[in-house]
Amino acid sequence: MAETIFYKRVSYIDWLLQRVPQAQYDLGRSIIHSKPLSELGIDLKDIALDAKELRAYQPLSHKYGVEPENIILSQGGATQALYIAYNSIVRPGDEVILEAPNYEPLYRLAVKLGGVVKILERSPEKDYQIDIEEFQRKISRNTRLVVFTNLHNPTGTFTNKDVLQAIADITRDNKCYVLCSEVYLDNILEGDPVPVCKLGNHMISVSSLSKVYGFSELRLGWSVCKDELIRKRMSILINQYLGSVSPLIDQIGTFLLRKESELLERSREIISANIEIINNWMKTQKNLKWVKPAGGTVCFIKLPPRINSMNFAQYLFEKYKTLVAPGDFFWKSGFIRITFGQNETTLKNGLNFISRAIKEFLQAM
User: Fold this and answer.
1) Which residue ranges of the chain lie beneath pLDDT 70?
2) What top-level class would CATH report for the domain 43-258?
3) What pLDDT sits at residue 1?
């Protein structure tokens, strides 16, 4: 495999991180603005750096209804957890079915490992829902792994239990694995969220404290896997590359997980108000289209025809110091991804500048 493919950087992450320091209105990073640890009652003097065992297994095993041995902790957030899962499953030549629009690292990982990627389109005409009939046409005896997100990144669309169960049944019959990134699932506003790991041993859930919990700096992530072979491989890879999660991260993470209800209540209050702000703004934007997200922290907005999304995002940043993610990084040019985990003032100002930039683009055409 060519070195340029094997070691290709994730352009989406580079593009955002290069601009975050200068952005005054950050509608690009998909996180809830964090709450100081001191306000949650955490005193770092109480942290035992010489702790002899990790504690986060217990609240997570309770959360998912599994044995602690089914939890694999990672110290690089959900991104590292996904990396470990891919490396435990995919071999050169294996088919990987991946949704589109998609989160770029999910594609990069499959290509890096020599996987043959088959794209499953989630179209705006169907509100970005997974089309089960299309999924059945895509899957084959060579399919090794199916990868998707719930809530969907970048649209915020929710996949319900009936669809998840259909995917579980089809993939079980086909003897392949399912990997689902669920980093936005916990703060869904309506519906009954079901982690895929509850639907079969071949179904693997990945999540973290980074997105809807508001603690991206902690970088505590995890996988939930009940398949013995894959779980053992994942544990070995963690042992080889990481050794163990830091006691500092583990103990702070355990404290936060035990405050899950409080943190998610705060998160839902923030995103519920902010989604309504965007919804009201969208009613004034006749040239824009979207599917209202079910929760999470992201939404996907279609720009007017002929507006180049990369050029638009760069113009918006340079002139108005407002950061959004071009849809090109999610396999969908002509769109921008907007996040809404920030404070209301930042969001409202950012939306106002998006309106101005669109007007200026259209006038220049």
Assistant:
1) 1-7
2) alpha beta
3) 45
